[in-house]
Design brief:
heterodimer, A: mainly alpha, 77% helix, flat, B: Rossmann fold, 6-stranded parallel sheet, 17 helices
Chain lengths: 90, 465
């Protein structure tokens, strides 16, 4: 239980940090920010990698969780990169 | 001892990748560092994955799943047209939610006794499921496969959301009671409740997004983006994994900031967007004075050619017609002609936050020339011609002039104050807000009907002759 409370503490701090970090974003970058953030949400990959694969159902669940998280990670970073390379100053 | 060291290494690795994520996001919010910021954040991801695979259980399964995901994700990312970015981001938000959904399901199956941890798996499944099915609906709405609004379906959706909410409360009470040792609640019952929750969460996502109109999609995508992060953070608490918590919260917060910016740019509250919609917020049937003045491409050329300063205002119509490249060509020709050209970008123009900026960047327009309403409105009187390309609600003067209008108070690009306004439009249909636009009837307005790309190509051809 103590660990959970500690984790909630981290959670709250991270939310405030995120709000501060993003609050001054120019509208030019809204789309890349969103797809870049989307890639970061692929962090579930880290959790999915060590899931239990003891039964058939568990194997399917782990496989699906890893696949969808990887789509996010690879697709998200690549498309963000593609967009940002187009943003140019004169 | 060995095991402890591995765990320590992993935790240190997560701290390092958290720092990279934070720096990456910070750099992403500045034009000059954004591209590097994305790389920094991807290194953080690589690092977090590397310190995790050192204790991998099933390498064959993991490797094949990662490869499959990498293949699909890369194919999407490299093939997608810039005009379809909103659909793709919506779908990817959904995949993030789905991954958390499966993660929590798998963790739940491992629990052999009722405990309060179960509440966390309930929460993760709920948010993940809503994110997934809600994003799929958003995807179909954005790709215009799913159109229109059904009144009965909307009402049913609202009732289903209330039902789901009650179900979740009851489910959580059951788990808490079971955790406290009340014997009439056994594991088998909780497992049944969990299966029901899996299904209900998916339907709740449908019920949440189905009634929301296409014009409100920028807000919906932002919120679902936030949800995908919250689902990951919730899964992180469930798995006691700090990397998931920190990264998930950063995404949750950034999505929330964008959601609020979008709602503010539409001058509406989140409650109004998600639960009321434009239809019920009163309609204005005010008669509009004046008449529509259509103009031919030849005459339009004469007007544009004489202008010394021009403001180009793109909207979703430019995206649909894929006209960004000819727009840029027209802009260049105008500049060669001695005209000062800038672009007026409304934050909610298009189907996702920043949609227009990406399209114009694709066409090589410098971001220095892209102005927000607050930059351009004060000097609007000095603009010789405002060229509105497939935008409607974001230039609707009712927002400033007509207190009864549903969009009254929304910050707009006040192009009606320019010396001349030329509106490129396919037909006289009203915008997504379903509100009539008096701009088209103003004395200084000219309408150039037709497909945006064709109309601008004609103008460009006239310039070249």
């Amino acid at each position: 239980m103590e660990i959970i409370l500690l984790l909630f503490f981290i959670l709250i701090l991270a939310i405030f940090l995120g709000l501060e970090l993003i609050s001054k974003i120019p509208s030019t970058l809204h789309t890349p920010l969103m797809s870049g953030a989307n890639a970061i949400s692929g962090i579930t990959l880290v959790g999915a990698l060590s899931l239990d694969t003891g039964s058939n159902l568990q194997m399917i669940l782990a496989f699906s969780a890893i696949t969808f998280a990887s789509i996010n990670v690879f697709g998200g970073y690549l498309v963000t990169n593609r967009m940002l390379r187009m943003f140019k100053k004169k | 001892m060995m095991e402890l060291d591995l765990n320590l290494l992993q935790q240190l690795g997560y701290i390092f990748s958290a720092i990279l994520f934070i720096y990456g996001l910070k750099m992403l919010s500045n034009e000059s560092t954004a591209a590097r910021g994305n790389v920094v954040s991807s290194i953080g991801m690589l690092f977090a994955v590397l310190v995790t695979v050192i204790e991998i259980v099933n390498p064959v399964l993991v490797l094949s799943a990662v490869l499959l995901g990498a293949l699909i994700g890369s194919a999407f990312a490299l093939k997608v047209k810039m005009t379809s970015i909103p659909e793709m981001v919506a779908l990817f938000n959904g995949f993030g939610g789905l991954s958390s959904f499966f993660l929590a399901w798998s963790e739940f199956n491992n629990l052999s006794a009722i405990s309060l941890i179960m509440v966390l798996s309930f929460m993760t499944v709920l948010i993940g499921g809503i994110t997934f099915s809600g994003s799929v609906v958003a995807f179909f709405k954005l790709s215009e496969i799913l159109k229109g609004n059904n009144n009965f379906l909307n009402k049913a959706s609202r009732w289903f959301l209330i039902f789901s909410f009650l179900f979740v409360i009851i489910a959580v009470i059951q788990v808490i009671a079971g955790g406290l040792g009340y014997e009439f609640i056994d594991l088998a019952l909780i497992q049944k409740i969990f299966i029901a929750l899996l299904i209900i969460s998916l339907f709740a996502g449908l019920a949440f997004v189905l009634p929301i109109g296409g014009g409100d999609m920028p807000v919906v995508i932002s919120l679902l983006n936030s949800f995908s992060g919250i689902a990951a953070a919730s899964a992180g608490v469930l798995l006691t994994n700090t990397a998931l918590i920190v990264a998930g919260c950063l995404v949750g917060a950034s999505g929330l900031v964008l959601t609020l910016i979008m709602a503010k740019s539409m001058n509406r509250t989140l409650y109004n967007i998600f639960f009321v919609g434009y239809e019920s917020s009163g309609s204005s049937a005010a008669e509009i004075d004046g008449e529509i003045k259509p103009i031919s491409a030849e005459d339009a050329y004469l007007v544009v050619e004489a202008a010394r300063s021009a403001l180009i205002v793109p909207g979703y119509g430019m995206a649909v017609a894929q006209a960004q490249h000819v727009v840029k060509e027209l802009g260049d020709l105008l500049e060669e002609n001695g005209c000062e050209v800038s672009y007026g970008i409304h934050p909610v123009a298009g189907r996702m936050p920043g949609h227009m900026n990406v399209l114009l960047a694709e066409a090589n327009v410098s971001y220095d020339n892209l102005l927000e309403p607050k930059d351009i409105n004060p000097t609007m009187e000095t603009v010789d011609i405002a060229i509105v390309i497939g935008a409607n609600d974001v230039v609707n003067p009712s927002a400033t002039e007509e207190p009864g209008s549903p969009i009254y108070g929304m910050p707009i690009l006040e192009v009606h104050r320019a010396k001349t306004v030329m509106v490129l439009k396919r037909s006289m249909a009203s915008g997504f807000a379903g509100v009539q636009n008096p701009l088209f009837f103003k004395e200084n307005s000219r309408m150039l009907f037709g497909d945006a790309k064709e109309s601008i190509s004609k103008l460009v051809a006239e310039f070249k002759d």
